[in-house]
């Protein structure tokens, strides 16, 4: 049911959370699209032509016009295909949805990045900081099933990586922040989120995802630094 | 994001006129009972600033630091309580003020003082503890471009529209605004603050590369008109234009002419148009004051422990 009409293509990479969140949005709206898998070590001429600025996935192509940046793409999708709205109608609620989305892309992902690719004190600080972001999100989720309320909303799609990719990061980079006793609301949000059919049916295979990020971490840090040295 | 010493020291600026109505800004409030002229929020004025730049030029104690900014004769939703927490040097705060001016919205500007975060700021933005914060009918909105979109949504019935009507054009404005914040503006700062020649050269290259991309973006978005938003200032004009003050300051500090008519003619002309616009005039900080401020900050951070 692509009521906005036209041809939709998505350039992506299977392990990328930014790509998946665009797919969740497309599927929530029942939009048909052609998915094109990119090898990021050998980017296609099309990707480079459609996104010469940062040369990254995801890129959505709608009737031949490219849009990059996952948050920009999701807002575009929501504005073109108006059924099953992702962003709330109320202007103030919209600010909250956008606020938590920028929080995700700034604070939370920065911290995870450092958790993956730094060591020693820098890593410890990053993990402390990451735990603090989970605490803040836990606080925000008090009394709610999803950030969007009863149903998935913009913040859920954007923060969704924390439900799947954060546990992967914990396993790959040997740290722990997700504690269902300390952060019960966040834990139940994770469970609720992963049970939603559109999400459940559109996640990468966990073992392959772990392997992918292990390799990536090894490349960045060097193999010797990727061995677990503590229980 | 930006730290500020104090509101611009030149009293004539504080007593400047509203670009829209030409009426002088009110800078103090009369206490309803005592009739005394009082600062609206005394905590917004820290008078023990030690910097010589501020101490010689700070406003007298009794004078308020907040301004009631009149939206003028434009149609506004009457009776609404709109406050903005900010600082004079901040380009992010300027974005929100530009948006409010475009829509002709009355608001109370509450100037935060350098080195001191007011109670109101900490309460209304507990996550980031940063300005700008818009407080509309008691509800806080944070993050400059989120505030700009909120202003556009709430005062949608008042032209001009800040975001374009077409979803694809909106996506372009959002994409490039994100690029300005994520890549371009940081490279402007890095070009004057880089610790090594190599880092500086890289940052300078990025600034020029970014301007080239933005020149092309201007061509695409403006469709032959004067602004990224077309006939009137739009979302991307605000995102990029409010950084022009710091761009000029950086040009002065580095001796590099970044915005060059020979290299990016459309942007150079657009910049002049933007700065001259009614909604912007009076908001752009003076280049020399920003340079002074930047030097003070650099000296301070050299002697302090590394920030987180």
TrEMBL record, chain A:
State the UniProt keywords alphabetically.
Answer: Transferase
The GST N-terminal domain extends over: 6-85
GO MF annotations, alphabetized:
glutathione transferase activity
- Could you confirm whether the keyword Ribosomal protein appears in this record? no
Q: Which reaction does it catalyse?
A: RX + glutathione = an S-substituted glutathione + a halide anion + H(+)
Q: Where is the GST C-terminal domain?
A: 90-219
EC assignment: 2.5.1.18
GO BP annotations of the record are:
glutathione metabolic process
> What InterPro entries does the record point to?
Glutathione-S-Trfase_C-like, Glutathione-S-Trfase_C_sf, Glutathione_S-Trfase, Glutathione_S-Trfase_N, GST_C, GST_C_Tau, Omega/Tau-like, Thioredoxin-like_sf
The domain of life is Eukaryota
Q: Which CDD domains does the record cross-reference, listed alphabetically?
A: GST_C_Tau, GST_N_Tau
Q: Does the keyword Transferase apply?
A: yes
For this UniProt entry, what's an example GO CC term? Answer: cytosol
Tell me its family: Belongs to the GST superfamily.
Its recorded name reads glutathione transferase
Tell me which species this is from.
Answer: Phoenix dactylifera (Date palm)
UniProtKB/TrEMBL annotation, chain B:
GO cellular component term of the entry, any:
cytoplasm
The UniProt keyword set, sorted, is: Transferase
**So what EC number does this one have?**
2.5.1.18
Which gene name does the record give? LOC103698564
Top-rank taxon of the source lineage equals Eukaryota
Entries under Gene3D superfamilies matching the protein: 1.20.1050.10, Glutaredoxin
Biological process annotations from GO: glutathione metabolic process; toxin catabolic process
The record's section on PROSITE patterns has: GST_CTER, GST_NTER
Q: What species was this sequence derived from?
A: Phoenix dactylifera
Catalytic activity reads: RX + glutathione = an S-substituted glutathione + a halide anion + H(+)
Indicate the segments forming the GST N-terminal domain, all copies: 80-159
Q: Which family does it belong to?
A: Belongs to the GST superfamily. Tau family.
GO MF terms listed in the record are: glutathione transferase activity
Q: Which protein are we looking at?
A: glutathione transferase
The broad enzyme category this protein falls into is transferase
């Amino acid at each position: 049911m692509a009521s906005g009409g036209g041809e939709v293509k998505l350039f992506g990479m299977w392990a990328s959370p930014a790509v998946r969140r665009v797919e969740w949005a497309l599927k929530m709206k029942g939009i048909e699209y052609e998915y094109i898998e990119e090898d990021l070590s050998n980017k296609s001429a099309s990707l480079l032509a459609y996104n010469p600025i940062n040369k990254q996935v995801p890129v959505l192509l709608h009737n031949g016009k490219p849009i990059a940046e996952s948050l920009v793409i999701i807002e575009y999708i929501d504005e073109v295909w108006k059924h099953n709205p992702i962003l709330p109608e109320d202007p103030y609620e919209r600010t909250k949805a956008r606020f938590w989305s920028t929080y995700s892309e700034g604070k939370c992902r920065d911290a995870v990045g450092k958790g993956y690719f730094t060591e020693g004190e820098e890593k410890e600080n990053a993990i402390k900081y990451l735990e603090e972001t989970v605490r803040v999100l836990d606080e925000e989720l008090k009394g709610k099933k999803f950030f969007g309320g009863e149903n998935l909303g913009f913040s859920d799609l954007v923060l969704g990586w924390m439900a799947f990719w954060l546990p992967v990061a914990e396993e790959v980079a040997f740290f722990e922040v997700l504690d269902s006793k300390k952060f019960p609301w966040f834990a139940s949000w994770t469970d609720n989120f992963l049970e939603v059919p559109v999400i459940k049916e559109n996640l990468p295979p966990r073992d392959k995802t772990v392997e992918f990020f292990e390799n990536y971490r090894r490349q960045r840090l060097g193999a010797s630094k990727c061995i677990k040295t503590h229980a | 994001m930006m730290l500020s010493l104090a509101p611009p020291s030149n009293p004539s600026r504080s007593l400047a006129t509203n670009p829209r109505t030409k009426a002088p800004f009110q800078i103090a409030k009369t206490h309803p009972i005592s009739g005394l002229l009082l600062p609206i929020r005394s905590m917004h004025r820290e008078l023990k600033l030690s910097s010589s730049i501020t101490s010689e030029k700070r406003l007298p104690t009794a004078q308020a630091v907040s301004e009631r900014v009149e939206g003028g004769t434009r149609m506004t939703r009457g009776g609404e309580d709109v406050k903005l927490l900010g600082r004079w040097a901040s380009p992010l705060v300027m974005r929100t003020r530009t948006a409010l001016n475009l829509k002709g919205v009355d608001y109370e500007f509450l100037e935060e003082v350098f080195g001191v975060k007011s109670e109101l700021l900490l309460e209304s933005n507990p996550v980031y503890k940063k300005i700008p914060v818009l407080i509309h009918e008691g509800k806080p909105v944070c993050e400059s471009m989120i505030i700009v979109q909120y202003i556009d949504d709430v005062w949608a019935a008042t032209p001009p529209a800040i975001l374009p009507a077409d979803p694809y054009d909106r996506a372009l404005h959002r994409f490039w605004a994100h690029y300005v914040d994520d890549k371009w503006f940081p490279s402007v700062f890095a070009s004057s603050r880089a610790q090594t020649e190599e880092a500086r050269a890289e940052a300078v290259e990025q600034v020029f590369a970014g301007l080239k991309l933005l020149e092309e973006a201007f061509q695409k978005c403006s469709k032959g008109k004067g602004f990224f938003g077309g006939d009137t200032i739009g979302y991307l004009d605000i995102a990029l234009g409010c950084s022009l003050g710091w761009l000029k300051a950086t040009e002065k500090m580095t001796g590099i002419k970044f915005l060059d008519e020979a290299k990016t003619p459309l942007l150079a002309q657009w910049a002049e148009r933007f700065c001259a616009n009614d909604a912007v005039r009076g908001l752009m900080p003076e280049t020399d004051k920003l340079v002074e401020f930047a030097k003070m900050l650099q000296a301070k951070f050299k002697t302090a422990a590394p920030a987180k």
